Amino acid sequence: MPATPAPPAPPCLMTVTGSTLVLAAPRRPARPPRRSPEGPYRRLFTLPGTRAFTAGNLIARLPMGMFGISAVMMIAGQRGSYALAGAVTATGLAATAFVAPLTARLVDRHGQARIAVPATLIAVLGSLSLVVCVALDAPAWTLFASYAATATTPNIGGMSRARWTLLLRGSPGAHHTAMSFEQAADEFCYMAGPVLAAFLCTAVFPEAGTLTGALLLLTGMLVFTAQRGTEPPPSGAPAARQPSPLRPLLPLLALFLCLGAVFGSMEVTSIAHLDARGLGAASGPVLALQAAGSCAAGLLYGTLRPRGLRGCLLAMAAAMTLPWAAASAGSLPLLAGALLLAGMATAPTMVTAMSEVHALAPEGRLNESMTLAVTAILTGIAAGSATAGAAVDHLGTTTPYALPATAALLAAASLATHTYPVRLSGTSQVP
Question: Membrane-spanning regions, if any (predicted)?
């Protein structure tokens, strides 16, 4: 029987070193490095144009947390009147509630770049006019008129969410992640903005906060609107020919009003509570914990399955009782931890509620619909702040901590006769 031939030897490398013949074993092909699976947020920013418009969006959004406190510190510092400063900023808030939905309607109809850039220029000129009028000791009415002009500032968060909605149409899991990122960005800017404004107004000069905010707003808006490839197409139709967003959104607007009352009452009560105990300097860092908790929870929520709106509201109402309990115990560390946990319940509620706005907004009116929601929140903040201030004067600084939990329960009760399934945000984790 013939012998089976031996398998051929693997090729070897031969080299001669001096008088020695060296045989080298064949090299094994290198294994490709293992690639760690991409996270949901990394996948978002692989889409063309998303990094550029997000950079502009964040630059332009940061001043949203700067303008109010900058105006108060500048006017109070130069004119010596917090009453005047508060009245000027309140007038600006009232003007925003009226003008912002109209600006958003024009954005939907004519396009983001065509409307947002001139509207931003008007707002920036209003801020510059305020600085000049304060510096020149102009009559008080000029301060009101100047700050009211800033109401034309476009809803940059709404325009960014509209771009994500266009890019991720048909991908509900990715859309949920994008909305969670946007909510976390909101919380970060409202946490960092006041800190930056206070530093600029005190360490540089009183007008520095307003001037820096105006520069950031204009720069960010120009970067954002330059990304035309991700801009939603304008509807082009007159608003009269389109269904109004008010009717489908009315129950949700009542909910957003209550959510604003949660935020406004919690802020005023916490400031008063800490100030009454000689800890007024800790107000900023302690309140920043609430925003930090919401920011972190928003990013985490984007990687999870979205929850029902009623469940989020009930969880939020329960979390809002924690600061009340901590204030009753009289412990600053407990209050700081309670505010952190209360903040963590905020972002999931806001993300889920905003997803319902997306689902219910009429075709071609998305930015206007989101701006109406923001306007309702701002109105609720004003009402909550005023209610908490009156409660502090009459009931002390502990009992008013019941207001945020009550407002959250009212928000849940507003859904008693309405059911909003989470449609756009989807029900599955990001694939």
Answer: 58-76, 82-103, 115-138, 196-225, 246-266, 278-301, 332-351, 372-392
